[in-house]
Amino acid sequence: MAKNKDKDNTRGAEGFNSYYQQVYGERWQALKEALLKEANPVPYKLDTELRTYYLDAASILAAYSLPLSGAEDILDLCAAPGGKTLVISSLMDDEANLTSNERSFERKQRLSKVIEEHIPLQIRERIKVTCSDGALWCKTKSECFDRILLDAPCSSERHVLNDEKYLSQWSPARIKTLAMEQWALLSSAYRMLRKGGIMLYSTCALAPKENDEVVERLFKKFDDASNLFIDSEEYSQLKNDFSKLKNFSPDLILPQFEKTEFGYQILPDVQNGAGPIYFSIIKKALNKKLSE
């Protein structure tokens, strides 16, 4: 009789737990317990006559961290279900235009519904909804947006951990595959960013391979790309902006973020359940280096 093959402990729940234990060490148990708890979304509303949208406070902060003043053409490249489009639309200048794209037709339908139900008409008129693969946009578009938000598809460990089916199917290969997809989207988005423009890359992933390592690859590929970090004055402005949301979100607390090498992370074990969110703010130089 053939011997039973050794159990593959790199996959499924055991593999998942082992992988993130290596990443987060002693912190993993507390972080895991926080991820298993029900998310605590907060209300976000633009008009008393419109429906209230609920989203994670960390997602609001990430979108708020993309500077929009002076931007005329803005892109939300992976926009569904629509929360960050909602936030961007509430912050952009009166003359700015926003393109919200989603590659899935079904998710694009949901995005369109969110825009219709939650954004005032005078703002909706300046939003264009499209449905295509953002990783391919750079083949036909170049340096055409002042600001880009890329909330990339990711491992979404909170969702995986709370779904037995997805948890049983988990493997490290999932992270590798998603990182490749994220790089294709990020490099495409960067090529569409105008000189002097700013983009924000974000995920709800915990794995550095989907976060800092993807951004690091961008910096190695494009020497006119650089990080922007939030200074004390900008943080004070974020606090002020968040205070304006108290009319609709009286219990909203500005999440604290933890700095990584190339961005920031907000984790639910220390932020009252908010997150996880990773984001990095990236600027394209006005002029390339003379050495090129």
Kindly summarize this structure in a few lines.
Helix 9 packs across helix 10. It is built from eleven helices and eleven strands. It is an alpha/beta fold.
Structure description:
The protein has eleven helices and eleven strands. α9 (172-192) crosses α10 (212-221). 38% of the residues lie in helices and 18% in strands. The termini are far apart. By secondary structure, the protein is α/β, with parallel strands linked by helices. The strands form two sheets. Strands 3, 4, 5, 6, 7, 8, 9, 10 and 11 form a nine-stranded mixed beta sheet that branches. The chain is globular, with a radius of gyration of 20 Å. It has a single domain (40-284), classed as Vaccinia Virus protein VP39 (Rossmann fold).
CATH homologous superfamily identity: Vaccinia Virus protein VP39
- The fraction of residues assigned to DSSP E strands is 15-25%
The total strand number stands at 11
Cα Rg? 20 Å
> How many angstroms does the end-to-end distance come to?
65 Å
Number of domains as seen in the coordinates: 1
Report the top-level CATH class.
Answer: Alpha Beta
**Sheet with most strands:** 9 strands, mixed
Sheet/helix structural class: alpha/beta
Low-confidence stretches: 1-6
| Average of the residue pLDDT scores | 93
Under the CATH scheme, the architecture is 3-Layer(aba) Sandwich
